[in-house]
């Protein structure tokens, strides 16, 4: 531990008072004798302040790490292996391929998320799945426009959430992606989503299944986690050794 240096003015004052025993010590000097903490000296670039031992660690910057992930097919005992960019230090919820941030308990209901599922969403033949990625994304958008969360059919029918199309396109391995900005319906008191939402549907031409990667981020994460999660969504690919038929 480094010893503290006593300012010269305090030393001079203490010497002067020792020669005058009939005078009371000033409150500042008495406080020093009582063990009160000394004020921190000014700091500059050449003498930076030392970090406090009880200071909270700095939050890690948003990042992902490559991983081979076995994802259950339609909730059954078969799995599809994919190569994914998983958010670093997030916690997987087994047996699902869903990851939660380490601080998820302190986050609001609608927060950043990363999930991979495998489905065929109906008929599973290559012919039936040919245009399924596009129709799947259309259904996702329609769900966000009409969230139907109130529990009252009349209210649900009248409630429309503002949804903005941010980007869409094709994926390198096959399939499509869509990025949305979903806002709470105006004038509602229900806990509706207020999120950036990304959905990436990956499918090779002969596959009898689709791999769906879903990501989301709160508005506060727009400049931090959201770009990282979008890149991770688009990066999910079906492992080369995975057969077209589960």
How would you write the strand order of the largest sheet?
A: 3-4-5-9-8-7-6
Mean pLDDT: 80
Q: Please state roughly what percent of the residues sit in beta strands, choosing from under 5%, 5-15%, 15-25%, 25-35%, 35-45% or over 45%.
A: 25-35%
Report low-confidence residues grouped into runs of 5 or more. Answer: 1-41
What is the count of β-strands? 10
- Number of DSSP helical runs: 6
Please estimate the helix content.
10-25%
Question: SS-based structural class?
Answer: alpha+beta
Shape: globular
Instruction: Give the CA-CA distance, first to last residue.
Output: 63 Å
Gyration radius, to the nearest Å?
29 Å
Element-level helix/strand string: HHEEEEEHHHEEEEHE
How do the helices and strands line up, and which of them pair or pack?
Blueprint: H1 8-18, H2 27-33, E1 64-72, E2 79-87, E3 91-93, E4 98-100, E5 113-119, H3 126-129, H4 132-145, H5 153-158, E6 163-170, E7 175-182, E8 195-202, E9 210-217, H6 225-235, E10 237-238
Antiparallel strand pairs: 1-2, 2-10, 3-4, 4-5, 5-9, 6-7, 7-8, 8-9
């Amino acid at each position: 531990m480094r010893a503290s240096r006593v300012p010269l003015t305090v030393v001079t004052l203490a010497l002067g008072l020792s020669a005058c025993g009939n005078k009371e010590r000033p409150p500042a000097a008495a406080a020093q004798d009582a063990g009160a903490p000394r004020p921190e000296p000014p700091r500059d670039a050449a003498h930076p302040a030392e970090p406090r031992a009880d200071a909270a660690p700095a939050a890690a910057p948003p990042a992902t790490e490559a991983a081979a992930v076995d994802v259950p097919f339609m909730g059954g005992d078969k799995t599809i292996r994919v190569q994914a960019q998983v958010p670093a230090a997030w916690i997987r919820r087994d047996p699902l391929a869903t990851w939660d941030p380490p601080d998820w308990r302190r986050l609001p209901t609608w927060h950043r998320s990363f999930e991979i599922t495998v489905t065929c969403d109906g008929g599973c033949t290559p012919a039936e799945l040919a245009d399924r990625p596009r129709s799947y994304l259309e259904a996702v958008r329609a769900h966000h426009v009409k969230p139907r969360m109130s529990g009252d059919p009349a209210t649900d029918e009248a409630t429309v959430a503002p949804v903005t199309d941010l980007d869409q396109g094709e994926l390198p391995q096959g399939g499509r992606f869509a990025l949305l900005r979903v806002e709470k319906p105006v004038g509602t008191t229900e806990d509706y989503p207020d999120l950036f939402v990304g959905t990436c549907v990956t499918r090779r031409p002969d596959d009898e299944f689709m791999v769906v990667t879903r990501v989301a981020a709160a508005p506060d994460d727009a400049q931090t986690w959201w770009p990282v999660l979008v890149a991770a969504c688009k990066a999910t690919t079906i492992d080369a050794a995975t057969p077209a038929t589960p």
